[in-house]
Specification:
Elements lengths: L5 E2 L6 E4 L4 E5 L3 E3 L2 E3 L7 E7 L3 E7 L10 E2 L5 E4 L3 E4 L8 E7 L3 E12 L3 E8 L5 E8 L4 H5 L1
Parallel strand pairs: 3-12
Antiparallel strand pairs: 1-2, 2-5, 4-10, 6-7, 6-11, 7-8, 9-10, 11-12, 13-14
């Protein structure tokens, strides 16, 4: 694990673990780190996702502790903040790929990219019929907990 200690422009706020690029299969969840320490009662943080049509879309924003307002989420079924402002993107799809930015409002930001690849398919058992020692004539595989048609669509 790589840990980075940096001052975030000014003050004592420290970015302990910056966001890092991630690759995920379609349907899984991804965590993007943005571990921040020593935020004061006036600091707030936001997470953004870059959308080609809409530009930067705010996913989450905390409010300064002095405001006593709750954090704002774009979609709590899709996004979750854990620990010291790490972002979880649930059930990723191809539309979730791209840039994610963690911003300490008024002090700076750091970005990472999620790359989403095809669906993950768990194979239970395959049966092969060999034409010769080096040529497969037929291969039939059985998938666990789902039908073959769901994965071929």
């Amino acid at each position: 694990m790589f840990v980075l200690f940096t001052e975030w422009q000014s003050g004592h706020v420290r970015l302990i673990w910056p966001p890092e690029d991630a690759i995920s299969n379609d349907g899984l969840s991804v965590i993007i780190n943005c571990t921040i320490e020593q935020m004061n009662h006036r600091d707030s943080i936001a997470w953004w996702h870059y959308d080609r049509q809409l530009g930067y879309v705010r996913l989450f924003e905390s409010h300064p502790a002095i405001s006593k307002r709750p954090p704002v989420y774009l979609n709590m079924d899709k996004y979750m903040i854990v620990g010291h402002y790490n972002l979880i993107v649930k059930n990723v799809s191809l539309a979730d790929g791209g840039e994610y930015m963690c911003e300490l409002i008024g002090r700076g930001n750091h970005s990472a990219y999620i790359t989403v690849v095809g669906k993950f398919v768990q194979v239970e058992k395959c049966v092969f019929r060999l034409l010769s020692d080096s040529v497969i004539l037929l291969a039939i595989c059985f998938l666990s907990d789902t039908s073959l048609e769901q994965h071929l669509l």
